[in-house]
Amino acid sequence: MTDPARTQADKPAKANAIISFENVTKRFGTTVAVDNVTLEIKEGEFFALLGPSGCGKTTLLRMLAGFETPSEGRILIDGKDVAPLPPNKRPVNMVFQSYAVFPHMSVADNVAYGLKVDGVLEDERNTRVAEALELVKLEGLGERMPDQLSGGQRQRVALARALVKRPRVLLLDEPLSALDAKLRDQMRSELTSLQEKVGITFIMVTHDQDEALAIATRCAVMNGGVLAQVATPSELYEFPNSRFVADFVGSVNLFEGILEKGETSEAQVRCPELSAPVYFDHGVTGVKGSTVWVALRPEKIEMHKTAPKMEDAPAGANVVPGIVRDIVYLGSETNYEVELEGGRRVKTFRSNLTRYDQEDFTWDEPVWLAWHACSPAVLLS
């Protein structure tokens, strides 16, 4: 039985790299879309390329698929340079954002199309189509036309058509962006289950942080054509290596400050926008007196009606007063904006553990914000 507490990132990938980008650069005229990217993706991973529009993630995927050619560098699959190979000769297949399902063909004919082009005999073709439809939970729907299917079912047809050719790597370009929120959540679970069943490497491009965190075993965050950070979802969220990554992956409060103390076991930062110092129960890399940034996730900030004493921090640290200025009730949680002395607003999220939690605080109420010494992250850039 699968342990429900485990995440995708807990599942070990095989040690050998199936995909290697070696100093890959792509230029379109004077525009550098991908800038000297070196990256390895291991066999069996569900890998996500994550970043804002125009960061280079789709261009990187298209070069792997063979639809674009690197201006510099090499792309290796199983240790072999694929530059000479056209898209149809590479051991990869791609599922596009728009599905690209042929509207005039039945589901079965859509799935069989690539096999037919490759000259696979009819008996084997029919067997593999049936297996692919069963894999994506579309058994019995082979005779239907695409306009008789839901959006989620059309997405599954596109997946089946890609998987039926048994690629070594499946490429997914914004695979869930055309679906509504509820169906997106359902398809996330189905994609992870499908990847486990087929056991091949999935590489997904997305701008949706929640999607990447929920599905991927590892993520590469891109910005301006370069790799900002490559890590597991939990590492990206809890230990971002820059302000860009901290701000892009999830919601965060960022404060500029000065490193006042930087011992091996503790540290302290003074932030002009906070009326109390930020204390850490761990060492911080950096020179005393240097400028750093403190990243505080909203769900790690507690809200109190009276000033609390934080047992893991010196007196006066990690506790600041403020006034509630905005409240957004979201059912499972309530989001607050609290205005500090000086006007800075801080976001904090509170889970609604009972049916009456949302009534604990109200607009314009004086409150105290507090956080534990292990909660903030310190960023040097």
Overview of the structural elements:
The chain has two domains: 8-243, Rossmann fold, CATH 3.40.50.300; 252-379, OB fold (Dihydrolipoamide Acetyltransferase, E2P), CATH 2.40.50.140. Helices cover 22% and strands 33% of the residues. The chain has helices at residues 57-65, 107-117, 122-135, 151-163, 181-198, 209-215, 233-238, 243-248; strands at residues 17-28, 31-42, 46-50, 72-77, 80-81, 92-95, 169-173, 201-206, 218-223, 226-231, 253-262, 267-270, 278-280, 291-296, 302-304, 319-329, 333-340, 345-351, 366-370, 377-379. The strands form four sheets. It has a six-stranded mixed β-sheet, with helices on both faces. The chain has a five-stranded antiparallel β-sheet with strand order 13-12-11-14-20. Strand 9 and strand 10 form a beta hairpin. The radius of gyration is 25 Å and the shape is globular. The model is unreliable at 1-6 (pLDDT under 50).
